[in-house]
User: Which sequence fits this backbone?
């Protein structure tokens, strides 16, 4: 019997190593086109996404309009067609075992359906059961509880049947609203000790590698 019938997986920097190799390089490339003279470091980008979320970071730090955000998003969707991030070692085993043992995998992410389905198909040979990503209206994306409430209603699950696996605070805010436990994907935040310390304090569980998560989920104690 599965410990958690439904895994709620983040995508960027939980399943694939995309922040430093895809998302930030794209943002660094387009930022001067939207705001000439503006700049940002990777550490600032990570901090902004963690504490504000990407959209609010763009609004508050760079004055992006809704039209700017839409244009940025459409450009990013083209960029990711030719920039495919690698998965974290060991995450394939977690996802395949969850599916092989009859469990659900639902992705709740600030990525879009297009690249999530591509990455799952290319790297793992499976597809998520559901995706709640950037394609949703902003008020329904995490940290909104909408994704978790929808998943529990659709599959007739209780909060204890779900486990959120994520590397950022918006996911904890989402999970906390409806009493769903969260595991901090610490392998995606090894270079950011302040964020890691905060997340370890907030979350129910913390794992330094996908291998540790796999043992927790599937090995009987």
Assistant:
């Amino acid at each position: 019997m599965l410990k958690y019938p439904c895994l709620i997986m983040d995508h960027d920097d939980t399943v694939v190593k995309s922040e430093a190799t895809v998302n930030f390089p794209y943002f660094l490339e387009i930022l001067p086109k939207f705001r000439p003279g503006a700049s940002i470091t990777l550490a600032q980008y990570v901090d902004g996404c963690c504490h504000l979320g990407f959209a609010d970071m763009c609004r508050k730090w760079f004055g992006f309009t809704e039209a700017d955000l839409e244009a940025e998003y459409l450009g990013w969707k083209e960029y990711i067609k030719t920039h495919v991030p690698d998965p974290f070692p060991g995450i394939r085993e977690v996802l395949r075992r969850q599916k092989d043992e009859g469990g659900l995998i639902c992705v709740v992410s600030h990525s879009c359906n297009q690249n999530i389905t591509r990455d799952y198909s290319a790297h793992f040979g499976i597809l998520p059961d559901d995706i709640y990503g950037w394609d949703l209206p902003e008020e329904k994306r995490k940290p909104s509880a909408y994704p978790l409430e929808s998943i529990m209603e659709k599959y007739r699950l209780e909060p204890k049947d779900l486990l959120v696996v994520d590397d950022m605070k918006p996911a904890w805010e989402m999970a906390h609203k409806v009493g769903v436990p969260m595991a901090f994907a610490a392998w995606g935040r090894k270079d950011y000790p302040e964020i890691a310390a905060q997340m370890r304090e907030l979350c129910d569980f913390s794992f330094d590698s996908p291998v540790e998560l796999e043992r927790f989920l599937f090995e009987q104690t």
User: Anything to note?
Assistant: The mean pLDDT is 95.
